[in-house]
């Protein structure tokens, strides 16, 4: 299964992009957008129902559009990006290139600065919109292989083809009969650290106590 990115149309994505699953028949039937996954898999669930989903695929950090993503400390992560420094650096490089008579690089740096300037910055409003639109009263928990801006690695471990995150998740659960969500996320990331660049994510449909024990 592969997940791609496309421009977000409803303003609920903090990075300004929707995630889409690419099915085998995508050329005829199209891609499956994360908004649709949420409506089909999450929205119908009633309080007391539990869904644990695992997506070990590229750009899958928020593929179920769950509004709450967690740090290893168990705290909810709110990402606010500010591109002002990057814009300033692009303008600086453009100025230096212009002094050297390099018109092509000057134009390229100016265009990059403009692109960064138009890129969504402080995404607190997108976070609020996501919480309002995507919150679920059911117990919906998603583990994903990486952040939205990363790829999930394929691996061959013990002569078996697998996903790096899938293998790590299975190993951690096999090694620990009882484990909290905080410890599970920490150990999952530790398993991959130093071998892969991807950072596994955990998100939920409503705020949860990360010190509770993991259950399926």
UniProtKB/TrEMBL annotation:
Q: Which InterPro entries match?
A: Metacaspase, Pept_C14_caspase
Query: Any idea where the Peptidase C14 caspase domain is?
Result: 14-204
Top-level taxon of origin: Eukaryota
GO terms for biological process, alphabetical: proteolysis
The record, for Pfam families, names:
Peptidase_C14
List, in alphabetical order, the Gene Ontology terms for molecular function in this entry: cysteine-type endopeptidase activity
CC per GO annotation: cytoplasm
Coiled-coil intervals, chain numbering: none
Q: Which PANTHER family match?
A: METACASPASE-1, METACASPASE-4
Which family is annotated? Belongs to the peptidase C14B family.
Q: What is this protein called?
A: Peptidase C14, caspase domain-containing protein
């Amino acid at each position: 299964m592969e997940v791609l990115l496309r421009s977000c149309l409803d303003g609920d994505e903090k990075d300004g992009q929707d995630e889409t699953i690419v099915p085998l028949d995508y050329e005829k039937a199209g891609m499956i957008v994360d908004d649709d996954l949420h409506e089909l898999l999450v929205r119908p669930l009633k309080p007391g129902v539990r869904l644990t989903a695992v997506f070990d695929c590229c750009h899958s950090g928020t593929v179920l559009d769950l509004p709450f993503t967690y740090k290893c400390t168990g705290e909810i992560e709110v990402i606010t990006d500010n591109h002002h420094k990057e814009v300033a650096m692009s303008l600086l490089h453009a100025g230096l290139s212009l002094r050297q008579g390099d018109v092509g690089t000057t134009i390229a740096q100016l265009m990059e600065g403009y692109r960064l300037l138009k890129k969504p910055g402080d995404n607190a409003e997108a976070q609020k919109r996501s919480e309002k639109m995507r919150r679920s009263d059911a117990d919906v928990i998603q583990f994903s292989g990486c952040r939205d801006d990363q790829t999930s690695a394929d691996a061959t471990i013990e002569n078996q083809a697998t996903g790096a995150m899938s293998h790590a998740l299975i190993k951690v659960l096999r090694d620990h009969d009882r484990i909290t969500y905080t410890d599970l996320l920490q150990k999952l990331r530790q398993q991959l650290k130093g071998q892969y660049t991807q950072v596994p994510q955990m998100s939920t449909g409503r705020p949860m106590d990360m010190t509770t024990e993991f259950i399926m």
